[in-house]
From TrEMBL:
This is Ubiquitin-like protease family profile domain-containing protein. GO terms for biological process: proteolysis. SUPFAM superfamilies: Cysteine proteinases. One of its GO terms (molecular function) is cysteine-type peptidase activity. PROSITE patterns: ULP_PROTEASE (PS50600). Belongs to the peptidase C48 family. InterPro entries: Papain-like_cys_pep_sf, Peptidase_C48_C. The lineage of its organism: Eukaryota, Viridiplantae, Streptophyta, Embryophyta, Tracheophyta. Residues 1-91 form the Ubiquitin-like protease family profile domain. Pfam families: Peptidase_C48. Coiled coil: none annotated. Keywords: Hydrolase, Protease. It comes from the Eukaryota.
Amino acid sequence: MPLHEVHRKHWLLFGADLTAQEYSIYDSSSATADADRANLVRYAQVAMGLALMHHSNCVQPLQWDIKYRECPEQDNGHDCGLYVMAFMDVLSMKTDRLYFDPSYARHMRDLCLVSILQGKV
């Protein structure tokens, strides 16, 4: 689930691993993390946990650990949304390793532009 930190205008990815029973954070700018971002993650944990309690057989999702995953870091202050899309794309391939270089984020930007120009979004 993409999370948007409004005051910093930063996007990060929050996910739930139902098998491991833990939450994962993918943040392309982890060096800028602060208490506000930690609160945002905690709110997402509660929201996701309540949804999982209501719609699945997950055991105590409000108690699951939150893991900050190693992931590629953006090399500028404006590509965080593209990195979130790239994280989702790579994770959807069910790979054990989340790795790509900055050119992949640029590739995501190109895909978005093509989709907009073709009227798909």
